[in-house]
Amino acid sequence: MDAALEAKGIEKIFKNRRALAGVDLVVPRGTCFGLIGVNGAGKTTFIKTMLGIVRPSAGSIRVLGGAPEDIDVRRRIGYLPERLALPPAWSATTYLTSIARLKRLPRPREEIDRLLVCVGLASARDVKTRAFSKGMKQRLGLAAALLGRPELLVLDEPTDGVDPLGRAEVRELLREEQARGTTVFLNSHLLSETERICDRIGILHAGAVLRDGPIEALAAQSTRWIVRFAEPIDVEGFTSNGDGNYHVEAEDPAALDEALARARGAGGLIVALRRDVPDLESILRGEVGG
Ligand code: ATP
Fold first, then answer.
1. Going edge to edge, which strands form the sheet with 17-28?
2. Which ligand 1 atom is the nearest neighbour of the CA of 12?
């Protein structure tokens, strides 16, 4: 498997505080990976080790096949920090031009124009950032991260402060990035948002990855099914809380088929059937408790 990120036993101790306690994680290239966890789990610290900003106390990490400190690796990464400090007297264009210069982009003008449109800031291109809302700052930060078409996008809370319509735009943007082969690694507290954007998830807790993998695999362990019948029924094993949906537990397809046959035998006319898939919040709660 060609990995965008391979972390083995990453530990980070700040003075006497253990922020990372042995992170093992592989993120395949081309995926959109979401790192989730409660406050203080170590998400930002881990992101900073990926970028070579924080040096691990132990363990090894490879990003895009090289070391995070390697300048050739760094120039292939786009990063949106958690709290982006923007020079208040600069316009969006000035800011992006300075970032483009730092990244040594050959034709920054076209790229900046394209990105301002992509993130929905074309009409605010000459506005000073001191007049920007939180969501506008976030969009500008995203444009800066996207400059130079990076192979890996590392986004710390990308939709923080962005309104619902803006979030849909960010989702679309990240989908386009992924479609052209970019790996996306993000960290978010907005679990429903993460669920919609990401195809793989990792749960970080107390500085270690408890579980990671495709979202469907993490959610597929549910043995609960939701059935709708044309008319109300009364069959053993089927419970309803009055909303017209019935719940039934079935360990495997045979058990499900048997339960449905019982319902049919009692006159039940099935009109809909689906697995009761837990959302990310339930998965996280199940892993870390509380
Ligand atoms: P949040 O969701 O609140 O942003 P997080 O999962 O990103 O949290 P981190 O910011 O990585 O968590 O912090 C993990 C732990 O490491 C916390 O206990 C934090 O106080 C501690 N920590 C982080 N950076 C430092 C630092 N520079 N010096 C000392 N302790 C730190």
1. 17-28, 3-14, 58-63
2. 16
279-290: pLDDT as tens digits: 888 888 888 876
* Three-class DSSP category at 246: strand
* Pocket (CB within 6 angstroms of ligand 1): 14, 17, 19, 37, 39-45
* Residues facing 205 on adjacent strands: 208
Ligand 1: which atom is nearest the Cα of residue 157? 4
HSE-up (13 A, CA, CB side) for residue 147: 30
- For residue range 52-111, what is the model confidence (pLDDT) as tens digits? 999 999 999 999 999 999 989 998 999 999 888 899 999 999 999 999 998 888 888 999
The structure's pTM equals 0.83
Which residue CA neighbors atom 9 of ligand 1 most closely? 42
Percentage of the residues of the chain whose pLDDT score is greater than 70: 99
Q: Which residue has the tokens 């050739």?
A: 72
Question: Which residues have CB under 8 Å from 266's CB, separation 6+?
Answer: 233, 234, 235
Pocket residue to mutate for ligand 1, from 45, 80, 157, most atoms within 8 A of Cβ? 45
Query: What is the amino acid identity at position 179?
Result: A
Return the ligand 1 atom nearest residue 189 CA.
2
Burial 168-185 (b: 16+ CB within 10 A, else e): ebbbebbeebbeeebbbb
pLDDT at 84: 86
